Amino acid sequence: MRQFIRVAVCVLGVMLAGIASAKPSWHQWVGSLKHEAVDQGISPQLFDRIFDDIRKPNRRVLRYDRSQPEKRLTFNKYRRTRVSKYRISLGRKKYKKYHAMLEKIGKEYGVDPCFIVSFWGMESSYGNFMGKFPVIKSLATLAYDSRRAPFFRKQLLYALHIVNDGHVNLYDFKGEWAGASGQPQFLPSSWYNYAVDYDRDGRKDIWKTKSDVFASIANYVHKKGWKTGEPWAIKVKLPRNFDMSQEGRKIRKPVSEWSAMGVKTKAGKALPYQHLEASIVKPYGGPAFLAFKNFRVIMRYNNSTYYAGAIGYLADQICRRKN
Asked: What angle is formed at CA 282 by the lines to CA 285 and CA 220, rounded to 5 degrees?
């Protein structure tokens, strides 16, 4: 038996060594990437100029990728952290400053302009904090050495096209560690699918041009299914005998059915929007919401009920709406 175990261990060691040796070196990997990029129309001179300054994976990016903290906050604490009084106050000032542009874009895309400002504020603090990581270096690192290498290789190639086509220069092409950038914090694939050249200058500039930023956010939300004139959510009071197995965004019923089950507004009144479909959502440490389709649309931007609740709250606060 011991001999068998020793043989098995040796075989496993050989197999693991073979797997390790199968991984190309950084230099080899960049060479294969160049062939793919050039085949897609990326300038070889531009590629060489970019990768001349990227000699190896970014250790800091890898550290972030491999050690994401697991910490569960309550919804109320999360919201207080992300939606401070300062962020609300600044959002109101920005809404006022760009009111005409926001109203025009909101009407064209069928998206509430208060939410355009809310996404803008949550993602980059109204363009003040877009991240400092060079996007292509971050994506190259993750495409070479991460758990989701194929996904990030795709993002990297999109990023190379963005620079190659003149939409942003390398100096400005910075973002958070995983490759999202610009004032809306789009990944390169989101830029490709949703960014808008609203001022028609030939560039989809989500880094500096406010009209492009606002239209890109609006276009993203519109294409994800935003319903014009419908609410995102309202706070509700659940009856004492409410069956919590009915809680969750995957369970959708007409509001009339929730009313029949005894659900009321936070103030104890009859629920509005009886004809619409909604879910009961109660995030950990937060209030219960009657969440409508627009709540789910917000989650297409960031798949988190906390995030959706914070975005809606910030939008309501910016436009001084009660909920």
From this structure: 110
User: What sign results for the dihedral spanned by CA atoms 92, 93, 99, 105?
Assistant: negative
How big is the chain, counted in residues? 323
Q: What are phi and psi of 275, to 5 degrees?
A: -85, -10
Q: What does the longest C-alpha to C-alpha distance in the chain come to? A: 80
Per the domain annotation, does 209 fall within a domain? no
Decide if 257 is inside a domain: yes
Query: Residue 72 and residue 94: Cα distance in Å, rounded?
Result: 32
The runs of H, that is alpha helices, within the chain are 2-22, 26-39, 44-51, 59-66, 75-82, 85-97, 99-109, 113-124, 135-144, 149-164, 188-194, 210-223, 255-260, 293-301, 305-318
Residue 265: which domain range?
233-291
**pTM for the whole structure:** 0.91
pLDDT tens digit sequence for 99-135:
999 999 999 999 999 999 999 999 999 999 999 999 9
